Amino acid sequence: MNLVVFVSDALRTDHVGCYGARYVNTRTVDELAAGGVRFDQAISVAPWTCPSMTSMVTGLYPHHHGYLHWDAPLPEAPTLFEAAVAAGYDVGTFVFDENYLFKGLPHANVVGTSEKLDGAIAWLRGRGERPFLLFVHSWATHMPYDILHAERREWLAAKEELMVGIQSGAAGALETVHESYRRAVETMSESVLASLLGELDELGLRERTAFAFVSDHGESWGERFADKEDVKGIYHMHGATLFDEVVQVPLIVAAPGRLEPGVVWSQVRSVDLMPTLLELAGIPVPDIDGASLLPLADGTEDGDRLTFISGTDMGALSQLAVRMPPWKLIHHVDSGREEAYRLDVDPRERESRPADVPLELRDLLYLELESADQREISPEEEAKVEARLADLGYL
């Protein structure tokens, strides 16, 4: 079975029709969900791209693989790409910027940019009889919207304009940001994703291809900041916090003839994607943090999966959270401060109640913290991290 992974960066679940959005046209995503399995509570294990995407393709939590900034040492763990190549698959990866995502990662075979779909479609058309893994990471829904990242001057100017609007706190400016995002989501669904799925249909590949649609994290627009002037960059949109608007993501897996359409309501993790795809392809799954989602999809397993979420700051682990409904407990590494939210009665995470958290959940978090990779970051490394984040508009 062929494998296709489509990642829509910074996509909020509340802007996707099959997750309840009412005023955004995501018909193509919704049709994909109707023919596949939609995971209603999928949690990203990190709030920004670098650690999140690495977890997606290694099946390891960020605090285990240690790839917490763009210039960190590459993890030695096996990857989805490596497993696919070993099983005889052709692999092609298209990313937002070839200088960042999966750079130097063995077997990823980054062959082009995803800013336009031409390269990915040409790669698909060049396949022979061998099975393939196509991985597309799209920035169509990443701030700033509707501007190609390659057009650096225009991209930075658009990003700055959006930030000024958010910092103003003005209702009109925020609605402009929200409307730009809605248009970007519609473009992703009805142009980019629709074109890719249409090409699979044209080539007669759809019925023998497992297709995963997912996001690496969600998005925010300064809602958590009382003083909007404190919102300094994209890092404060996603990256700085572990609230659900940033870590809850859409996840849909469609595999004709292998998965019956349906909805899984239990909590799952982004580290579960790699083992799911490998099982669908009949490829052995290595010993990793994630586990295949197929037992949940076919009803042989039920219940929420315990999830850890890693927050980073300037390349170091800064927060570690455990999420197990109905609770989320967040530990701030440097200060030891805790936040805790009872999600069933406080879904917007407004009232922190650390004293009420079940003791066993706190014990699990602190035990996990002991296993975390907490390598010291030198001043030189920190300066390099800062420069790279500034180049991406995060600072």
Which tags fit this structure?
395 residues, alpha/beta, Alkaline Phosphatase, subunit A, 8-stranded mixed β-sheet, 4-stranded antiparallel β-sheet, 12 helices, globular
Q: Output the helix-strand order.
A: EHEHHHEEHEHHEHEEHHEEEEHH
SSE-based structural type: alpha/beta
How much is the radius of gyration in Å? Answer: 20 Å
Proportion in β-strands: 15-25%
Percent helix among the residues?
A: 25-40%
Low-pLDDT stretches: none
Query: In total, how many beta strands?
Result: 12
Write down the domain tally.
Answer: 1
The CATH homology group name: Alkaline Phosphatase, subunit A
Overall, the morphology is: globular
- CATH fold category name: Alkaline Phosphatase, subunit A
Q: Can I get a quick summary?
A:
32% of the residues lie in helices and 20% in strands.
Describe the protein in words.
The structure is a single chain. This protein has 395 residues and is α/β, with parallel strands linked by helices. It has one domain (2-303): 3-Layer(aba) Sandwich (Alkaline Phosphatase, subunit A). It is built from twelve helices and twelve strands. The strands form two sheets. It has an eight-stranded mixed beta sheet with strand order 4-3-5-1-6-7-2-8, sandwiched between helices. A four-stranded antiparallel beta sheet has the order 9-10-11-12, with helices on one face. The N and C termini lie far apart (42 Å).
